[in-house]
Design a protein that fits this description.
mainly alpha, 73% helix, 16 helices
Length: 391
């Protein structure tokens, strides 16, 4: 079997992604793999740059502009001390030509299943620590992950990848299996939002397979366009408003979000929101467990983006998702629309919307940008050919 050049680039990209996601999942466990993750980050950068340069369809001008933007992004990420954001940018930049989003989502899903299961098995073997918490009147288990929420959220984001690649062949048995698995995870973790996301996403998928619900499908496509911008703006408004109003409503919302709102307000008061952002001091859960110190950070993705990366990045993020929503609505991409809506909700309580693999819709953005570049190149070539013929 002859492997074409484009296929080879796709394989390099897919393997780079698979290993990166696997290491990120393992890093969310109690295993100490920080040094391995840091070392692989540099390997991933090299491999992704190779994939980018190997893209034959780009003109020299496009490559030059892209590299200049890369340098700027690298400097920004260096200033705020954020390697994962830079790598996510490279995954978008180097997205290969003709890469199948369905196949890519399938690989991401398999990685989540395999390595999440691996960590849980290690927990039963006593190799990883089951960080139990008594909360909501019950004991919550992490089964080797840094927290029960980490286990539940991993299940939820892996489900989105499963939904995207399985949507066209979705059956009632898929709905039953997913709900049963999600209920089992909820039983041990008591993670309410993760279970709600899994349940809502599964129900939406099932409803979209009823032919008569064409208006409902149209509504899903419309909601996807505004979901991330609306959630983002509401979260920033809430952060600013409650920074000066510690009232009963604040206490209610803070309790419902497991005190995430108070952390958003704390970091906003300490760092504010600037145009280009600034480094913030956080204590990840893996570090907190290893060193026996309190956790400190922002779980809300929108507040994190605005405070750490700055207002310009935050606005660009919202605009990109609006444009992506328009593209998905135009193509009537129902699984893509469902994934974006779920991503918007996840961003309210989790901060990894810019973490490769944990947000399947980043690859939707990569595909959208790649299509725009290809269309411009094709249009320019057609115009040049037409001009030569006329002359």
């Amino acid at each position: 079997m002859i492997i074409t050049f484009n296929k080879m680039v796709q394989n390099i990209y897919a393997w780079t992604l698979g290993i990166y996601v696997a290491l990120r999942i393992i890093a969310s466990s109690t295993l100490n793999v920080g040094n391995i993750v840091s070392f692989y980050n540099y390997i991933a950068i090299v491999l992704l740059l190779i994939c980018f340069i190997a893209n034959k369809k780009m003109t020299l001008k496009q490559i030059t502009i892209s590299l200049l933007i890369t340098v700027v992004v690298a400097l920004v990420c260096y200033s705020v001390v954020d390697m994962p954001l830079f790598i996510s940018y490279l995954f978008i930049l180097s997205f290969p030509l003709n890469m199948s989003l369905k196949k890519l989502s399938r690989e991401i899903c398999l990685v989540f299943i395999a390595f999440s299961g691996f960590i849980v098995i290690l927990s039963f073997l006593g190799i990883t620590h089951d960080a139990t918490i008594y909360q909501h009147g019950t004991i919550r288990h992490s089964f080797g992950f840094t927290s029960p929420n980490a286990l539940a959220s991993t299940n939820a984001v892996g489900l989105l990848a499963y939904i995207y690649y399985k949507f066209d062949r979705w059956k009632m048995k898929n709905t039953i299996v997913v709900i049963a698995l999600s209920a089992t995870v909820y039983y041990f973790t008591s993670s309410r939002l993760a279970f709600a996301i899994a349940l809502l996403a599964t129900v939406l998928v099932q409803l979209c397979h009823f032919e008569r619900l064409y208006r409902f499908k149209k509504l899903i496509l419309s909601v996807a366009k505004f979901s991330v911008p609306v959630c983002g703006c509401l979260c920033i408004w809430a952060t600013k408003y409650f920074s000066n109003n510690q009232n009963e409503l604040f206490n209610t919302i803070n309790a419902l979000t497991t005190y995430r709102l108070s952390w958003m307000v704390k970091y906003y008061k300490e760092y504010g929101i600037q145009l280009l952002g600034k480094p913030i001091v956080t204590v990840p859960r893996s570090q907190a467990i290893a060193q026996g110190i309190p956790w400190s950070g922002i779980d809300n993705a929108y507040a994190l983006f605005a405070i750490k990366y700055g207002l310009i990045f935050f606005v660009c993020f919202l605009v990109l998702y609006y444009l992506l929503g328009e593209k998905i609505e135009k193509k009537k991409d129902l699984p893509g629309a469902i994934c974006i809506i779920m991503v918007a909700i996840i961003g309210i309580t989790e901060n990894y919307l810019c973490m490769t693999g944990y947000n399947i819709s980043l690859f939707f953005i990569a595909s959208m940008i790649k299509e725009l570049k290809m269309n411009r190149t094709i249009n320019k070539s057609s115009f040049d050919k037409l001009t030569r013929n006329r002359s």
